[in-house]
Specification:
By secondary structure, this protein is an alpha+beta fold. It is built from 4 helices and 4 strands. The strands form 2 sheets. It has a two-stranded antiparallel ribbon with strand order 1-2. The longest helix has 14 residues, at 54-67. The chain starts with a helix and ends with a strand.
């Protein structure tokens, strides 16, 4: 997906991304000789406060996806779509619950759910 891919996704969904990154651009624009992106990304955040439970963020995104599920399925034929969740805690312990109803909604679309865990340092 190149820059035109961003336009196609935005136009197909009728939604502006929270942020987007093009392939072969610096991860850190202030360090153009540093690490280069290996893929493009079109990112949409839930819009909820970070303090809200993870399942509410996922549910909020699913409401949007479910309202445009056929458009998302069109895009799935040309790009990878997933729900990506980052999770960290102050003391290295913590958890969250994704109830069966929420997991079923994800499975009906179907979407991959990526959980990226960040232990305390």
């Amino acid at each position: 997906m190149q820059l035109t891919g961003f336009y196609i996704i935005t136009k197909t969904l009728g939604i502006e991304p929270t942020c987007a990154y093009a392939i072969k651009t610096p991860v850190n624009p202030r360090n153009p000789s540093g690490k280069i992106r290996q893929e493009s990304s079109w990112i949409l955040e839930s819009g909820l406060d970070e303090s809200e439970p993870l399942k509410l963020h996922i549910s909020e995104l699913l409401l949007l996806i479910e309202s445009k599920v056929e458009r998302f399925k069109e895009l799935m034929s040309v790009c990878d779509i997933e729900i990506f969740c980052g999770f960290s805690s102050e003391n290295g312990q913590g958890g969250f619950v994704l109830d069966a109803a929420l997991l079923k909604r994800i499975g009906l679309i179907p979407l991959d759910l990526v959980l990226d865990l960040y232990p305390s340092s």
